[in-house]
Amino acid sequence: MPEIKQATRKTENPYVNLYELETKDRVGHDKHYYVASRAKTAEDLKLSTHNEKPDGVIIYGLTPEKDKVLLVRQYRYSLDEYIYEFPAGLVDPGENFRQAAAREVKEETGLTLSPLTLENGYERPFFTTVGMTDECCATVFGYVSGNLTSEGEEDTEDIEAFLVDREEAKRILKEERVAIMCAYMLMHFVADEDPFAFLK
């Protein structure tokens, strides 16, 4: 089994940092590996804590009629391009993940989110891109209402929100850049008569 000997923080950023891991591979060779993390210290890395406390949330919000889904089209520096995603964001200290989801939806879109409370494990935190980060996010499912606005958008964000029907979702999947987590859920939305049926 591989072994991690030491983790060293290499950057000093407020939201995400790079950690260098000194490791041995499964046959005993010394290696260096790099991990991006929301952790503030090496002791807070999930490889140290082994907890699944969510760093962030992803929101799958439908209109009450379940005929439209909430998407955002956001500029991402990593691509130098706009990409379709679900609203998402970090869980602030003192918040639970459902509170964080409602806050993020309001800030990014102006809409009000009424989260569902699930007991079947679908909203428990899962890991995102484990080859490069220990980030863990909870998916919050719920209904959205109100009017779309960009009044809560921060200067560091370039986001446009949309409520899209199934035909527009199909077009987006065919023609646009889409984050993979969003793409999988859009496939449910397009194909399922009741997009929340799998939650039962």
CATH architecture of the largest domain: Alpha-Beta Complex
Largest sheet: 5 strands, mixed
N-to-C span: 39 Å
Going by CATH, the homologous superfamily of the largest domain would be: Nucleoside Triphosphate Pyrophosphohydrolase
CATH topology of the largest domain: Nucleoside Triphosphate Pyrophosphohydrolase
User: Oligomeric form of this entry?
Assistant: single chain
Tally of individual helices? 4
- Flag low-confidence runs: none
* Average pLDDT, all residues: 94
Organism: Fusicatenibacter faecihominis
Protein name: NUDIX hydrolase
GO molecular function: pyrophosphatase activity
Cofactor: Mg(2+)
Question: What this model shows, in words?
Answer:
With 200 residues, this protein is of the alpha+beta class. It folds into two domains: 3-49, no CATH class; 56-199, Nucleoside Triphosphate Pyrophosphohydrolase (Alpha-Beta Complex). The chain contains four helices and eleven strands. The protein has helices at 46-49, 97-109, 166-175, 180-191; strands spanning 3-9, 17-24, 30-37, 56-62, 69-76, 81-85, 88-90, 112-115, 126-127, 136-145, 159-164. Strands 4, 7, 8, 9 and 10 form a five-stranded mixed β-sheet that branches. Helix 3 (166-175) packs antiparallel against helix 4 (180-191). The protein is elongated, with a radius of gyration of 18 Å. The protein starts with a strand and ends in a 9-residue tail after the last helix. 26% of the residues are buried. The model has no long low-confidence stretch (mean pLDDT 94).
